[in-house]
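Appendix B, Record 12. Input sequence as logged:
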Amino acid sequence: MIPSRSSVRILRTPRVPRLAGCVFLLALAGCGVAGCDRDDAPLVAVVNASAHRLDDLWVRTEEDSVRVPTLAPGASAEVRPHVRGATRLSVAGTFAGRRVVSDERDYVERSGGYCFRAVVDSGGRVTLRFVRMDFR
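Logged structural output:
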């Protein structure tokens, strides 16, 4: 038996662009959640290479400061300071009861992908180095 034409549904063209738009928006949202966003804040890996516990250490920009979690000897943590435009990046805090500041103030901008490594050595010296651009 041949079905009548009135019971057959024909897909109309306007549905295809709507579906494609929805798929695109979902992919874009998934990319943002997965960290594909080029506006990521810079990543700073902070390493405690000393024999002292670090309780009061901050990653600083000209506009903002982000506290580094407490680090046991040999431990490390990653922080992402907030950056608006171009700025300078440094590390400061206390080490064994005295104030320490990184000698370097590295350039960073919000365009994304900047990765740094800050190391606190056994003498309390803080070194901050640019490591790479991370273009996921």
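The helical segments are 15-34.
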